[in-house]
């Protein structure tokens, strides 16, 4: 039986009107329905929820009858997206925990390694609370009565700022290794401590992240990098030796990565646009550089030019699916570094107008910060952007012209 808590500090005016409308409509159709998960957790912590999730006794098909324009999505985990104006409310049906080991033989719910491949066995609200990941993510809010329902001592953990997996951590990570990344993301974002057993099972479970599809891993890492606390989260990834599992092609470039994470967190705090591709570019930069140098040294003029950027990104994609637009971003930012360094007179204007100039310039500044290139270069590019056209021309003229290098033929080949 849950504890019903009436004396809580949820500011009602911060709850999305659309989410409440979804709850009310489902209740009118006689389905038991609540707000659940991260939104209840964040409201209780005085934070603004990122999105609103609804849990209900209605099956996805029944939800669709109440909201005919809603869409059923997902296979492993079927949920319904109900669109209300610009907001999308995620509605999931109460589910129960699939008993670990009992159904593995028919292969319907678990893969060979105990990873849940389907989680669509419906249940009641009690069962639904226990199959959720962390205690602080298992609170239900009843907007009609203005009460919170607590099944697993969530309030206590919320008060002591503790992130605790529900059930046996080893088994819960094995069922769904993405919970490892969620643990890290929430610990960093909420500044919570990991409960001892929840923490202890992370490193041994780390390898199983390879069992997760590259697309799902990207989605989850994207949330980690875009959380506003990427630095703290990355420190935890390092602590639990997960960087090498996730980024096997990343060679050590801790300073550049730290600088990229720092800059991303700062930009989020300032409300500026950010992209995970910038962090990916930093993570794989050393690999790109060492492969470029290796290619130059082994240069065989007969050979077709190889796009090292593409090779490095492709290697990474076997673990994490980097969407095309991000892959292009990374490639452009890398390619532009050499051009920014060369400062060829004739390419200054085209560079300033390049659609990725700003990103490449920001990346160059990271490299200045880590002393990979001298400060004068960064300063030159900073200043040139601020000058008026005449002054710009003067600056560009002052650059040493690049002499065209002719390849000298070896003497023996001369006629
Ligand atoms: P946020 O939306 O702020 O990132 P959240 O806790 O709402 O955090 P969602 O991914 O929106 O996270 O998931 C909603 C809820 O669904 C969670 O609070 C949790 O109760 C449950 N949940 C999500 N993913 C899992 C999972 N992999 N295993 C178990 N429960 C999960
Ligand atoms: Mg959510």
Total number of strands = 10
The percent of residues in helical segments reads: 40-55%
Judged by helices, strands and strand pairing, the structural class is alpha+beta
CATH superfamily of the largest domain: Beta Polymerase, domain 2
- Do you know the CATH topology of the largest domain? Beta Polymerase, domain 2
**Average predicted confidence as pLDDT:** 91
Spatial extent as radius of gyration: 26 Å
Largest sheet: 8 strands, mixed
Query: What is the global morphology?
Result: elongated
- Helix/strand order, N-terminal first: EHEHEHEEEHEEHEHHEHHHHHHHHHHHHH
List the ions, cofactors and other small molecules found in this model: adenosine-5'-triphosphate, magnesium ion
Distance between the termini: 96 Å
CATH architecture level-2 label of the largest domain: 2-Layer Sandwich
Structural overview:
- This protein is an alpha+beta fold and 415 residues long.
- The chain has two domains: 212 residues, Beta Polymerase, domain 2, CATH 3.30.460.10; 179 residues, cca-adding enzyme, domain 2, CATH 1.10.3090.
- Helix content is 48%, strand content 9%.
- It contains 20 helices and ten strands.
- The strands form two sheets. It has an eight-stranded mixed sheet with strand order 1-8-7-2-3-6-5-4. Strands 9-10 form a two-stranded parallel sheet.
- The chain is elongated and about 80 Å long.
- The chain binds adenosine-5'-triphosphate (ATP) and magnesium ion.
- The site of adenosine-5'-triphosphate has 12 residues, from helix 7.
